[in-house]
Amino acid sequence: MIPTLDVACADVASRSERANEILRVASRLFFEKDYNSVGIRTIANSAGVRGATLYHHFRSKEEMLYRIILEVTRDYIRDHLPILDAPSSFAQRLKELVRQHVEYFWAHRYGMSVGLRELHNLTPEHLAEVQFYRLVYQRRIQEFIAAGAHFGEFSCFDPDLVGIALLDMMNGVNDWFKPAGRLHIAEIAQLYGELVLRTVGTR
């Protein structure tokens, strides 16, 4: 049974800072190489801990991968989807979600990339859970766009298709953005918010 967002995130607060640091190191190593090329010993050495310490926090390398991907799915959704329920216009809420999405996933680009590339290395149960959270996010955005169209703020011929297109658009930033470029990521996030509003046909 796949847990709800509220139940599933109960373990986040109890995770120690040491465990979080190990996950950050593992995320970078999985990004720079690939999951199957990185061994437990490499992760432990890079994190400055002993293998026994690592196993104290995580039962396996697959669990580390699972926790990394949860951070950019379940944890992100828990912290950011409430934006769509804020007391403001549909356009303002969608623009703010886009801004935070772009900035968050650039800051968490290692985890995002690993999450897209290494899904096949999760156990079937973990994979099903991650896919559930991704679908929750996609459907909530689609429903929000449909509601905005219903109330006359957006003009969309197909909210479901537009929602998928918007996710592809936002997730694609990490493929081309360069910190040394002419725009800061915060500026890109703001501009993407404007582009998204044009895409949904803001009136």
Q: Could you explain the architecture of this structure?
A:
This protein is mostly helical. It has a domain at 61-199: Tetracycline Repressor, domain 2. Helix content is 69%, strand content 0%. The chain contains eleven helices and no strands. It has helices at residues 5-8, 17-32, 40-47, 51-57, 61-80, 90-107, 109-117, 124-150, 159-171, 173-176, 185-199. The model has no long low-confidence stretch (mean pLDDT 91).
Record the SSE blueprint.
Blueprint: H1 5-8, H2 17-32, H3 40-47, H4 51-57, H5 61-80, H6 90-107, H7 109-117, H8 124-150, H9 159-171, H10 173-176, H11 185-199
**Averaging pLDDT over every residue, what do you get?**
91
Shape: elongated
The portion of residues assigned to helices is 55-70%
User: In CATH, what is the class of the domain at 61-199?
Assistant: Mainly Alpha
At the fourth level of CATH, the homologous superfamily of the domain at 61-199 is Tetracycline Repressor, domain 2
